[in-house]
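Office hours follow-up: a student asked to see two folded examples consecutively, so here they are.
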Amino acid sequence: MPATATPLYDYNKYWAECFGTAPLLPMSRAEMDALGWESCDIIIVTGDAYVDHPSFGMAIIGRLLEAQGFRVGIIAQPDWRSKEAFQALGRPNLYFGVAAGNMDSMINRYTADRKVRNDDAYTPGGLGGRRPDRCSLVYSQRCKEAWNDVPVILGGIEASLRRIAHFDYWQGSVRRSILLDASADMLVYGNAERAIVEISHRLARGEAIGDITDIRGTAFIRDDRPEGWWEIDSTRIDRPGRIDQVVSPYVNTQDTEACAAKQSAADGGDNVLRFVPDARRNRERSVIRLPSFEKVRNDAVLYAHANRVLHLETNPGNARALVQAHGNRDLWINPPPIPLTTAEMDYVFGMPFARIPHKSYGNARIPAYEMIRFSVNIMRGCFGGCTFCSITEHEGRIIQNRSAESVLEEIEKIRDTVPGFTGVISDLGGPTANMYRLACKSREIESACRRPSCVFPGICSNLNTDHSALTGLYRKARALPGVKKVLIASGLRYDLAVQDPEYVKELVTHHVGGYLKIAPEHTESGPLDKMMKPGIGAYERFRELFEKFSAEAGKEQYLIPYFIAAHPGTTDEDMVNLALWLKANGFRADQVQGFYPSPMATATAMYHSGKNPLRKVTYKSEGVEVIKSPEKRKLHKALLRYHDPKNWPLIREALKEMKLGRLIGSGEDKLVPLHQPREGAVHRSPRRKNSALAHEKRIRKGKALTQHTGLPPRADG
C-alpha cells in the first residue's frame, strides 16, 4: 500500500452538495422531505443515540461525508427484531455504514464479571437494552434483509477490534472475524475518515464494492490469490515451536524477509512463499499469512503468535498487509491508514456540528453527552501501548494533533452556542491528556520503528517529551473571554509529565478541580510488565511534584489513583502488596476495576493463552499467571477494598492459606483485623497521626513492604 494519501479536503465534491448543510442529519422521511431529498446516498446505522457532536462517531463520519457532497441519513438504535426499522429512510443509493457506537456492544452491556448492566450512557434516559449483543453483526444482517443489493460497510470500534479471528470473553472461545459473521461487504478499522471518503467517491463513480481492495485501513474477503504479491508465512517471521535463528521482527529491514525465504527454501516450503521477481519484492507488495481461524481457534499458542504479529504490523510506515484463512476463504487486512495531518484534523473537527442530541429525543438526558458537551478533543492516538487498552489498536500510536487555533475556535463556539455553558471547559484532551504534539524526533526512525510502546520499558530516547505546546494551549484557552476555568479530565501519562515539570506546575496550578485521577494500575513489577506500564516510582515522582506545586498555589488538591485487579501476570502476593501499599498511603477505593479481556488486546491474548506475546511466542516460552476463576477474581477485587468489613473474611482466609497470618490483627503493619465487627456496627479504622506519611518515607528510603510481609519487593520504577 502506498504511504501517501489524498488530503480529505482535496476531493471533488459529489453532485448532491447543492442541497447544502443539514441543521441535523435526518432520522426520518419527514426530515428528508424538509431538506428536499428524495433519497439518501449513505445511511449510517448506529447503536448510539444520535448526538451531533465530534465525540460521537456517527456525527464525525456523517458530517465529513456531508462535506464531500453526499446526503447522509442516520438510523440510531433501531429495533433490530425486524427489517422495518432499517427501511425507514428508504434505500440508500451507495451503501449502509454500520457501527455499534462508541463502545463495543458487549462491553457496553456486560460487566467484567459478565453481569448485565442496567444502564447505557449512550441511550436517552440512560436506559439499558436498546441495542442487541454483537450489535454490528445484527445490524448488518438486518440491512441485508432490508436491501440485499446494497453494500454494507462495517466500522467503529466494535468492528475495528473484531476485524480478525479474536478471543471472545463472553463466549469463552475464539470467534471468526466479524466481517464473515456479519455478511458485510467490507470493514473499515481505526479512525476511518480516509478510507470512508475514498470508498464513497469510488462507489459514486460506479465501482463495485468487491473491486475496491487497495485502500488502507480496510478488510475484505477474497476467494482468489492476487498476482504480484509476495506472501510470507508469519511463523517464519516469528516462529512458534522450535526457536530458529531469525532476525528480530522488531527490526524493520529486508533481512527479515530474506531470512524467511532462506528458511523456506531449506524446508522446501512452496506453501510458505510465492516468489515474484526481485524488483517487485518489497514491503508494499508483501502480505503476511497468519495461522488460519481454525488453527488459532484450536491452538492458544498460535493465537498468541498471531496476536503478536498483528501488533507488530501496526505502524503505517512499515506495516504489511495480513491475510488469514477462514475455511476456504481469505480475510485480507490492508495496512493501517496514514495518520491525519494537523490541517486535516482541523478540517474534520471544523465541521458544522450542532453539538446537541437530535431533537427527537426531547428533554431526555443522554449521560455520555452530558459528560462531554463542554469538552474539546485536541488529539488522537496513543503511543503508550498498554496491553489491556484498545486505543492503540484502534487509533494507532502516532499522535494526530489539531492546531491551537482550531481548538480555541471550538471553545469559543461552545461558549457562544451550547446551552447551559457556565464558563467551565470540562476537558481539553483525548485518549491521553498530555501527548499533544509529542512525537518521534525523526520521521525516518518513526516510520521504521517496530516497538509496541514509546514509553516502555522506559521512555525512548527518540521521543520528544517537551510539553511546551500543550502548556501554551492551556494558557491561551483559559485567557479566552467568558472562560472561567479549563479542567483536564482525560487520563494523564504521569511518566511523561515528570519529564517537563513546567507542564506539571501549569496543570496543578490552574487545571485541577480539586482531584486529579491517574492510573498507576499496580505497584508490582509482575503485572506492570505485562501491562507495559511504568513502575510505581514514576507515580511517586509525580506525586511529589503534584504536592509541591499544589502547596505553592495554596490549593488543597488530591490525587486519585486507579488500580486494576486480576490482570494477567498478577499473583495473590502481588495483590496483597498492593493492598498494603494502599493502606500505608491512606487510599480507600470506592469502586474497583477488574481486568476486562476486550477483543484483540494483547492482555486478552495473555488471558486466553497463558503466554506473553510481548516476546517471541513458543510452546516453551514464558508462561503468564492468569486469573480466571470467579473466586480468585473476587479475592483480587476484595484486596483492593481491604477496608471494607464485608471483604475481611475472604481476605483472612486467603492470608492464612498464603502463610501470611501475621498480617491479621491490629496495628499499622496489619492488613485486616482479627475479628469481624458486630452486625450493624460501623467500623472505623484507628487514626494514627502521620502514620501513612511515616510509612511512605520508609518506602522511599528503600525499606520496602517486604519488611513486614516477607513478600518479593515492589517495583519502584
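And the second, which I mentioned at the end of office hours:
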Amino acid sequence: MTGISNGKFSFIEFEAIPQANILIKKQLEKRIEPKVMALLILLASRSGTVVTRGEILEELWPNIVVGDEVISQLIYSLRNALADDAKNPKYIETIPKRGYRFIAEVKITETETKSGLRVKQHSDVLEIKSKINFKLKWLFSNLFLLLLAISIYWFYNNAYLQKSVSSRAIANILPVTQDVGVEDDFSFHEKHNKMVYVRSLEQQVDIYVKTLGTNQPQQITNDDWVESSPLWIDSRTLVYIRKKSGQFQIIRQLLNQDIEIVYESKKAIFNLVKKTNEPDAVTFTEFDDYQHNRLYELKSLNLVSNQVTYLHDSVLNLPGNIGRAIYSLDGDSLYFFDASNDVKHIIALDLQSSQYTTISKQFTWVDHIALLDPDHLLISGEMSATKGVWQLNINDQSIKSVLLSTSGRRIVQAAFKQDQIYYATYKASINQFVADTEHQTVEPLTKLNSDANELSGIYSKDNSIIYFVSNRTGYYEIWSYTIGTQQTEQITQLQANSIYRPVLSHTEKYFAVVYEKESLILSIISLATGKPISENNIPSMKFPLAWSRDDSSIYVSEHIKQVNIYQYDRETLQPKLIQKNAGLFAQESFDEESIILVDYKLGSLITKNLKNETITKLNNSIANIDSLGPGEFKVVEQSTFSVKKHGGKRQIQIAPLGSDEFGSVSKIIMDLPDWSRVTDFNDNGTKAIFFKASPPEGNIMKIQYDK
C-alpha cells in the first residue's frame, strides 16, 4: 500500500496489514480525507513512541487552529479502516491524556538508486511487520504507479475539491449546549438568530429556545408530555409534536402562552417539516402499520384551516416506508430516505411530475436529512460501518465526508446556519451483564464490554464461553469471550451493518444468524473459520431459534403477517413449515421425534410429534407472551425460565412445566435493571445474560471553519 506524506517518506508499503488495501481503495476511489493517510504515516514513522495530540496537530494542521475533536475523528477513521479494536489494539494504542502510539513492529531500510536518491528498494520505504502473519502484495511496484499516486493525491487535494463545507478546513468544534442528558432535535428560525431544541433527562422531555451566542436557554414546556420535532412558524410561534399514553398531537404555541391542538391521532406521529413554498403548512409522518399496505403515511397539514391531505393519494407509487423527508428550497421536490423492505435509498421526488430519482444507494442508515443549499444535502447517518455527516450532491450524486462520529457518539442530526455546521450527538453504549439468580448478583463483564455496542450474548454448551455481537471494529461481528481467561476474540469477518441474536449448534460447529449488509441475509457460519458456509438473501426478518439434534437443520421463526416456525436445511436453506402461529422458543427432543414449541394461538407450550404431527399442550398459559423475544424464555428440564415485564421493570421468573404461569406457582427469583434485555439462560437456568444501554447523553455542537 502506498501513500503520500510531507517529504519524510516518498511512499509507504504495508506488508502486514490486511486492511491496508481497504484504506487505499477508500482514499482513491471514494475520496476519503487524505489526512487519514498522513496520520497513519506519522504514527508508523514513530512506531513505539508516543505521538502527542499536539504533535499531530502541528504536523497535520500547521499554522491552523483545530479542535481536538478533529484528531479523534481521524483516529476513529484510521482504526475503522484497519479493523483495529481500541480496547485490544494491534496497531494504534491510546495513551490516556498524552496521545497515541503505533505498536506494530516497524523496520526501516535504505538503498541508493542510480540517480543518487536514497531509497528503500524503490524509494524511502517504511516496512511494517505486525504481529499477525498476513502478507499483501505490493500495490505499487514501479515509479509510474508512484507518480500516478502523487498525481491523484494532488488532484483530490487541490483541483477536485469544490468550495463546500466538506472541503473547508475545520478551525474548531465547540459545544452549543452542555446540559446533563440529551439535547437534540433542533431547528433554526430562518430569519432570526434563534434555535429551538428538545432536552431529555430521564423521563422528562421538554422544549427550549436559545438565542445563538448566549448561555441561558428559555424553557418553553414543562409537563409530562414527550415533545419532539419543534419548528418555527414565525419569530414568536412554534409548532411541535407531543405524545403521552398513546395520544399523539401536533401543537401550535405562541411563546409563553397557551397551546393550541391542531391535529390528534392514536397513531405515532413524527418528523415534522415545513413546506418551503407554503409558509402555513407542515408535513409529517404517521404510523400506519400496513393498514393501507404501507408502514407509514405521509401527510400535510394546513395550520390555518387544519385541513389534512395524504401525499399517498396524490403521488403515485410513493414508498411505504418513508423517513427523514425534507423539501427543496422551491418546494417542488421532496427528498427522503426509503427503507422499504431491503431497500436503503435516498430519493428525490419531483412533486410536479411525480418522477422519482435515486440520489444515493450508499447509505446503510439515515438519521436525518437537511438542505445545505439548492444542490446539496447534509446526511447524518451511516455508510458501511462509518457513522457521521456527509455532503451529498443532488446532481452528480457524489458524496464527501463532513464529519465522522467519534468516541461512540453517533451524529443524529446536522444543519447549516450562518456559515457553520450545527450537529447533535447521541451516545448510549450498550453493555452486557450476567445475572446470577443463586447469589442475587449482577456481574458487569468489564473485560468484555467496551465503548462500542456489545449485545446479544449466548452461552456455549458448557457455559465457559459467551458468544456476542459487537461493533467495536466499526462493523458488527460475532465475538467470543472466554469466562476463565477473560479474553475476547473476533470470530467473523462479515463487515455487517447489524447482526441479530446468533444460535449455536449442538456440536458447536455452526452459528445460525441473520445479519444485514446491503440486504438481510440468513447465514450458516462455521465457528472454526468464521465464514459463511451457506446463506440466502431474505425479504423480511427471520429469527433463528434452535438447531436440530444432529445439526442438519435450524428452526426459524418467520414474521410475515403472522408468526410461523419453519425448519431450514443447513446446506440448502430450503424451508419446511413446522407449525403455524408459533415462535419465540423451539427445542427438539433427544430422540429427534418431537419438538417443544411456544404456540401463540394457544398462548402456551406444546409438544408436536414430527412424524404423526400430534400436538400435546404442556401448560395453561405463558405470562406476557407477546412481549417476549428470542432468548427470554427457556425450558430447563421440568421448569420454565422467562422474563416478566411491566413497563420498564424486568424480573426473572420460574414456573414448573405443565402449570399455569399466571397462578401462584410462578415465582420471581431475581430483579433485573429496568429496560434490560435478556438474550440467553445457561443450561440450568441459574444465570442469564442481558444487555442494557447506559444512560444516554448528547449535546448540540457547532463546527467553525477557517475564513
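Two things to take away from it. The helical segments are 20-30, 35-45, 53-60, 68-82, 143-159, 311-314. The CA atoms of residues 428 and 695 lie 6 Å apart.
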